[in-house]
Specification:
The structure is a single chain. The chain is mostly beta strands. The chain contains 1 helix and 28 strands. A hairpin with a 2-residue loop joins strand 1 (40-50) and strand 2. The longest helix is centred in the first third of the chain and has 22 residues, at 2-23. The N and C termini lie far apart (166 Å).
């Protein structure tokens, strides 16, 4: 009987001890275990753009574990380049991040990538784009006059906007009738610190369209510029025993049979009138005309015997019979003396 009572008396004491242990267990004051998960990643915008460098922005929630991150970027969604990895301590707060990227060009893709013990998480892809006022843009200046057949020319321009300095560019051409794909001509050059550039074309043999292109994986092109190749014209004078009676003759290269030849006298004009160029002080007026004839495979010839009614400075202008590969060309000027008053009609 005593043993039963003893067991009966000890049972409540054990239960009380267990209850006391549970009461003092650190259930209310201790931090709850944090469940680690994949980091939350948001690819942001771009700041501090300078030439081909910029700061790529984004935000990361480490989701309870130490997290490393970096930005990927490149001309396509295959990227190809990345920034130096950086790290964030374990935490659950959203943290803004940013890293400098070099060799970044308008149109490039980029994204933020983060990883922790739970795995790797890429952010959404974004495209590096600038405002219209800041986008790189070509200005290719067209020559003010046609280039004589076989002559040289310079094509100058400016690449403006972000990343305009030190860009490697090439000149591309498509000759008349402008149906061939553009092909690179000459060697690449590099834009100046202000984006300026100039290409030298040694010989122009036909009217040609030109454009300038960057050598990036995603090229930037200039607008098209058409440079006309003018016929090369020579003019010579043979006088006679009769004053004012002369033979005007010359050649045209390349051969252009049936082209119209006009012999023109330079005349003074008043500046500021309705002329297209208000600063022009002279113009040429046609006095005689003829047509070219075949001479060789490479050139044509012309000749005319005329009586010069008005003395002065003359030139020959030759206009092709058909518009196309060549524009009208002018000769150098010659001085002609007029016939005596008695012979003028």
């Amino acid at each position: 009987m005593r043993s039963r009572k003893t067991r009966h008396c000890f049972a409540p004491a054990a239960a009380l001890a267990a209850t006391t242990a549970l009461a003092f267990a650190p259930t209310s004051g201790a931090a709850r275990p944090v469940r680690v998960g994949l980091p939350s990643v948001a690819t942001g915008g771009v700041s501090h753009v300078q030439a081909t460098s910029a700061t790529l922005l984004g935000a990361i929630n480490p989701r309870g574990a130490a997290t490393s991150y970096y930005f990927q970027y490149g001309p396509t969604t295959a990227y190809g380049k990345q920034t130096t990895p950086a790290s964030l301590p374990a935490g659950t707060a959203r943290v803004k991040v940013g890293q400098a990227a070099t060799g970044l060009l308008p149109g490039y893709h980029y994204r933020l990538v983060a990883s922790n013990s739970a795995g790797l998480k890429p952010g959404k892809d974004r495209t590096f784009a600038l405002t219209k006022a800041k986008k790189a843009k070509f200005t290719l200046t067209k020559p003010t006059a046609a280039t004589v057949y076989g002559g040289a020319l310079n094509l100058a321009g400016v690449l403006s906007g972000a990343g305009n300095a030190g860009r490697k560019i090439v000149l591309q051409e498509s000759p008349f009738p402008y149906l061939e794909p553009f092909a690179t001509t000459g060697l690449p050059i590099v834009t100046s610190s202000t984006g300026a550039f100039s290409f030298h074309v040694a010989r122009l043999l036909t009217s040609t369209q030109y454009r300038v292109s960057t050598l990036d994986p995603r090229p930037l092109y200039s607008s098209l510029v058409t440079v006309d190749a003018a016929l090369r014209v020579t003019l010579k004078v043979r006088t006679s025993s009769h004053k004012g009676l002369v033979r005007l003759y010359g050649t045209v290269t390349p051969a252009s049979v049936g082209a119209r030849v006009t012999f023109q006298l330079r005349k003074a004009v008043r500046p500021g009138n309705n002329e297209k160029n208000s600063e022009r002080t002279s113009k040429f007026a046609t006095q005689f005309s003829t047509k070219t004839k075949r001479a060789t495979k490479t050139l044509s010839r012309f000749s005319a015997i005329v009586t010069v009614q008005k003395g002065g400075t003359y030139r020959a202008e030759v206009t092709p019979a058909k518009k196309g590969a060549f524009a009208a060309g002018d000769s150098a000027t010659v001085l002609l003396h007029s016939a005596p008053a008695s012979s003028k009609r």
